[in-house]
Amino acid sequence: MGRYVVRRLLQMIPVFIGSTFIIFMMMYALPGDPVRALWGERAPDEAQMAAIKADLGLDDPILLQYWNYLVGLVQGDFGTQIQSRREVIDVISDALPATLRLTALAFLITAVVGIGLGLLAGLRAGKKTDRGILFLSLLLISVPVFVIGYLYQTYPGVKWGWITPTVRDSENWGELLLPALALASLSLAYVMRLTRSTIVENRRADYMRTARAKGLPQRRVVGNHLLRNSLIPVVTFLGVDLGNLMAGAIVTEGIFNINGIGRTVYEALNAREGATVVGVVSFIIIVYLVIALLVDLLYAVLDPRIRYA
Amino acid sequence: MPEARATIGKKEAVPSGGGAVPAAVAVDAGPAPGKPRSLWSDAWHDLRRKPSFVIPALIILLLLVVAAFPGWFTSVSPRAADLTNNYLREPELTHFFSPEWLGYNQQGQSIWARMLYGTRASIVIGVAVTVLVTVLGSLVGMLAGYFGGWVDALLSRVIDIFLGIPFLLGAMVILVSFDTRTEWTVTFALAFLGWTTVARVMRGSVISIKQSDYVAAARSLGAGTSRILLRHVLPNAMAPVIVVAMIALGGYITAEAVLSFLGIGLSEPSISWGGDINRAQGQIRIAEHILLYPSILLSITILSFLMLGDAVRDALDPKLR
Amino acid sequence: MRGARSAKWVASAIVVALAATACGGGDDDGGDGGSDGAAGNPDGIVRIDGGEPQNPLIPMNTNEALGGLVIDNLFSKLLDFDDEGQIFMVAAESVEPNEDNSVWTVTLKEGWTFHDGTPVTAESYVNAWNWAANVTNNQNGSFWFQDIVGYEDVHPEEGEPTADAMSGLQAVDETTFTIELTDPVPYYDYKLGYSTFTPLPESFYEDPEAFGESPVGNGPYSFVEWNHGESIELTRYEEYAGEDAAQNGGIHIQAYDGLEAAYTDLQSGNLDIIRQVGPRDLPLYQQDLGEDRTVAQPYNGTQTITPAWYNWEDTPPEVLQGVSMAIDRETITQTVLNGSRTPADSFVPPGVYGYEAGASGDITTFDPERARQLVEENGGIPGDRITIQYNADGGHREWVEAVCNSIIETLDVECVGDSKVDFDTDLEAREANEVESMYRGGWLADYPLNVNFLKELYASYAHSNYGRFDNAEVDELFAEGDRAATLDEAVALYQEAEQLLWQEMPSIPLWYQNVNAGWGPNVENVRFDTAGVPVLNEVTVNE
């Protein structure tokens, strides 16, 4: 087990370097010079421009810049913003809590509602409930997230006044509920469908027949055998989806005015703050890789057939 | 578990740890290898009778016709603007298919005409990305799956690298660097980041087929690698890939709409639903119809592709019958 | 808002409202019951929308509106401008030129202190300006000091500075200092109304970086805290010596990502003032909030479409007059722009000294027939095709489309928007002379004088003259204006130049920017100045 984890961690290194390298290069290739932008429509001050570039290392060759960036990352240095001169790590850690809370809530909704409805549909496969839930899931996938976001904001928020339409205080879970619902809708639909199909598949499995034949009560059959086995792919999906929820928060955070990672990265992208964009992406990649590892380890817990050497 | 693979920007997580992939999971990806002809004809036989296939298929057919010949359905140019007379004019729902049918937008342009002409962008992007992703993904997946060893190790790492890049964010970074973003720019950006999903499905399904008797038989008869790949492996491995690709198509259309909503989708003078929805936000309080009708059409289109993909998957996957 | 130059003369201005209540006193001033006439809560906090400042909060480094909103309330400038663009003094007692306008003497008011209690002296100004002008300190606003003798020594074009201080800047005594200019400028006091020309306390030099996170100013409000990306808190400075002391307890600046989110909060009572209503709510905001709680007035900003003359070389200016008359400004501002602009009738907006109503004659009036005639008789538009280059991140697409549609309709030529991803890319194309046909020009006043809207844009040597308009006669009139003995003469000469510009058409003015703002029932006395900035110190809070 320990050796497996070590090997996986080592495998992460090239993946991490590759992904960050691609994003770094893409940011570098963008038109627009963020240092020049400091002067707006005025004539830029050549002397100051050169000084700032030298200070931030922006005049180095691109590969050297990337190398320096990596070396910095290893030491926990995410670089400095060009405009505000703030440490990128500070910018990220300011924005992170709100996104983490939003993601956690969306994740909870996805898992509980998604698995619940999926289980219901799977057990009633072919019946009206099943078709209703399937259609609901299709609807959630078909309506783009920004339309859903506006609907939530307009009706329960503005027109009916149930909840504040924008998030004023990102530590208030009640205010985060609407954005979390909007953010969760797509994943929710996928989890529903995934749970349903694995349940349908596994319902006919031999071990189910055996369990029933043994005379186990329905509750235990479903809870212990069916659900446990069906959850494996769902857990996989949920795990990886966590990282996606974070990236997907760009739209939701914009609509509901949440000061999170999504908004930060959107603004940084528009301002050509390369270090910030690459920093956020690196962070999401790390989250993604670590969760992928955890999910694999979880496999062993859920599925006794899998053993990692 | 084809569902998970069908998602766009949602990466399914078959453990990425190369050799340690539990065989059960990988094998699960494809339908049981059997006689291909009968599988496809069986599926077709099945599908023809199912309304959940026929209805979306007809809608999609209609959309394809509209995309190809929008001029057949309206005489008005989608660009003709008359602010003085038509600014935000209300829909007249009884005037079926006339220019004023669904009202006018904030530039005094017919919404009906713009929806018709906008179909092309969504359909072209959806279809083109799907085709590109399928071709590229299948190729990489097949090579990795069939040859195994260091080829697989290398290609799997490449797949992992692309999987690590968040889909929407990555697409944004790519698209921001273009001043003019046509259908092909957006297609390129989405395909560049999206091919990994197909590659993984393909790899899994090739691995299982490779071990089958008929491949072994072909090999022992002295068939060359390319012949085995093209004649035996590919046709059998395509089923799950096609299912994934069809369901993904709707997702690519959504992705274009979301990018346009963020203001980095198609640029002028392209006409697209996502772009029009983006523009409609300014008038959402006084003229909901500008936002409403393109949104409905967009959702119906995505829904149709999803349902079609669902139906095809059910037909191809005997286990779910 | 990014990159846009912002003019923001501080929230201060005419203090008519306060005169009666005699609130000027610096001493006990009375947080409680001070303003006897006005009911309400004198310690109430005004909540206004804002966003994350792009730069550290140092006045000389702030060149955008979000940082400006904070700086304007933390720092008092030497002088400020009223709604006609006339000067009145704030921190200065007087600002006087010598006979040839080459040496300006600033006398400060007595008894002013920084928020840390230290006195504001002539040295506080001289040292701060020397620091900010120094090339090694990389301040965005350093170019503001380039008129001063000795600027090249502290800010050479290349290499290290050869001096610590500009020789043209001399503190005479505690409250007096002189500014010597390399060339006479009859309107130099107008430039001093920019927030770069503020003082810094001694403590600043110990750690400028820390100061940028927690600034200490001389204005009506002192700094409390900055929650990055969320909010900035200011509180009333009780020892404030100026006449524009705060009539409320402080300011809470809430960061918003979009104008819509801020508006929604205003409606639900979570915000008191919104500086600009977003497009979504523009059609209905006066109805939503009540007309007496909204304002729609032009501020000192213009929008133009400007031909790139290197691609219009052989086209006579009459063609551009024709294009100008082909644009239905009235209809577009009322429909597509929902009243967020006022049709222009001059190169200069109305809140600026030197503005003359109707300066354009009939060139900015929609007249399709005359437009067609002018264009056709003078050889037509090059290639029968106009493109309007604009930045996609500035909310210009709607009106560019509408202007194009208007041109297509009237002149029967091709016209499309040419969108650049963002303002930087737009600017890069302009600087490199790569504009295909026309570009969207926008200008916000640095100081409310017609000079600023004419010389900076249409002098052949002006940096922001991206259309590369080059007319010797115009240049000469500008130069004459700069040599004028008095301000009024300078303004009159520039007005003469403007008349010439209408014959030469260096660009087509479209409209003035409007501030469309609103406020909630909990605040009163909300006013916006001609820079479009709310005068926050005058606001009173009800509860």
Considering the chains and any ligands shown, give keywords for the structure.
heterotrimer; A: 309 residues; mainly alpha; MetI-like fold; 2 domains; 11 helices; 0% strand; C: 543 residues; alpha+beta; 7-stranded mixed sheet; 4-stranded mixed sheet; globular; disordered N terminus
Major sheet characteristics of chain A: none
Proportion of helical residues of chain A? over 70%
Number of domains of chain A: 2
- Determine and state the CATH class of the largest domain in chain A: Mainly Alpha
Total number of strands of chain A: 0
Model regions low in confidence, pLDDT < 50 over at least 5 residues of chain C: 1-37
Count of DSSP H/I helices of chain A: 11
User: Helicity range of the residues of chain C?
Assistant: 25-40%
Q: Helical element count of chain C?
A: 16
Estimated share of beta-strand residues of chain C:
15-25%
Distance between the termini of chain C: 33 Å
Percent strand of chain A equals under 5%
Structural class of chain C: alpha+beta
Fill in the CATH topology of the largest domain in chain A: MetI-like fold
CATH architecture of the largest domain in chain A, by name, is Orthogonal Bundle
Largest interface: A-B, 69 and 59 residues
Structural class of chain A: mainly alpha
Low-confidence stretches of chain A are none
Name the average pLDDT of chain C: 89
Tell how many strands the DSSP assignment of chain C holds. 19
Oligomer: heterotrimer
Summarize the entry for a quick read.
The complex is a heterotrimer of chains A (309), B (321) and C (543). Chain A is mostly helical and 309 residues long. Chain A has eleven helices and no strands.
Characterization of this structure:
Chain A has 309 residues and is an all-alpha fold. Chain A folds into two domains: 87 residues, no CATH class; 208 residues, MetI-like fold (Orthogonal Bundle). Chain B is mainly α and 321 residues long. Chain B has a single domain, classed as MetI-like (MetI-like fold), CATH 1.10.3720. Chain B is 68% helix and 0% strand. Chain B contains 13 helices and no strands. The longest helix of chain B has 37 residues. The two termini of chain B are 15 Å apart. In chain B, 56% of the residues are buried. The N terminus of chain B is likely disordered. In chain C, α15 packs antiparallel against α16. Chain C starts with 15 loop residues before the first helix and ends with a strand. Chain C is α+β, with helices and mostly antiparallel strands and 543 residues long. In chain C, the strands form five sheets. In chain C, strands 11, 12, 13, 14, 15, 16 and 17 form a seven-stranded mixed beta sheet that branches. In chain C, strands 1-10-9-8 form a four-stranded mixed beta sheet, with helices on one face. In chain C, β4 and β5 form a beta hairpin. In chain C, 57% of the residues are buried. Classes of the chains: A mainly alpha (309), B mainly alpha (321), C alpha+beta (543). The interface between B and C is medium-sized, with 26 and 28 residues.
